[in-house]
């Protein structure tokens, strides 16, 4: 996905994006995922489990899971039914069992036991789309090929007038066009924290939100 040039990016949106980023940095000088993990592989597992599930629930499940399955080979050799029982509290647990155990074999056989770093390679793993790949790249490797667009980013980017799109890929393109590249890495994490702490999707006194002046 190529970033549009500054000439095609709306000047006003770039100015607003810069102000929003500055405000988010003041609120969240340290930005990272709240998912708990000890390695890039465990981050992959946690991110896949987090789809349509709260991070709090994922952390509860992985606290036990990561003690039982300590190495990549533990996942490669895992019994699917037993693994599924370990994550049964997670939504879509059977599909996620299939993705995670399939990815373990692929990482071992095709990537020498190491979670790949590139967007292209990450997206060959089961359960990984652009959003998941962006999160893994940013959190595990400090790499930003794009910007993860989850429900918080989608909702708030539209509220703030940074995009009019509804498709995550198109929203990502709009954000890449107006955000300085050095801010791609942590934008998602800061917006997610802001959405949870101050501006949730549920009804609330929006005028009290710290960034309500932006929309």
The biggest beta sheet reads: none
The geometry reads as globular
Give the CATH H-level superfamily of the largest domain. Hypothetical protein, domain 2
Architecture of the largest domain, according to CATH? Answer: Orthogonal Bundle
- Total number of strands: 0
Q: Indicate the low-confidence ranges by residue numbers.
A: 2-8
InterPro entries: DNA_glycosylase (IPR011257), HhH-GPD_domain (IPR003265), HhH_base_excis_C (IPR023170), HhH_motif (IPR000445), Nth (IPR005759)
Domain HhH-GPD: 49-197
Catalytic activity: 2'-deoxyribonucleotide-(2'-deoxyribose 5'-phosphate)-2'-deoxyribonucleotide-DNA = a 3'-end 2'-deoxyribonucleotide-(2,3-dehydro-2,3-deoxyribose 5'-phosphate)-DNA + a 5'-end 5'-phospho-2'-deoxyribonucleoside-DNA + H(+)
Family: Belongs to the Nth/MutY family.
Q: What this model shows, in words?
A:
- The protein is built from eleven helices and no strands.
- It folds into two domains: 89 residues, Orthogonal Bundle (Endonuclease Iii, domain 2); 102 residues, Hypothetical protein, domain 2 (Endonuclease III, domain 1, Orthogonal Bundle).
- The chain is globular and about 55 Å long.
- It has 215 residues and is mainly alpha-helical.
Give keywords.
single chain, 215 residues, mainly alpha, Endonuclease Iii, domain 2, Endonuclease III, domain 1, 2 domains, globular, disordered N terminus
Gist?
The protein has 215 residues and is mainly alpha-helical. The chain is 56% helix and 0% strand.
Please render the helix and strand layout as text.
Blueprint: H1 11-27, H2 40-49, H3 55-68, H4 72-76, H5 80-86, H6 93-110, H7 119-122, H8 130-141, H9 151-159, H10 168-178, H11 184-197
Helix pairs in contact: 1-11, 2-6, 2-8
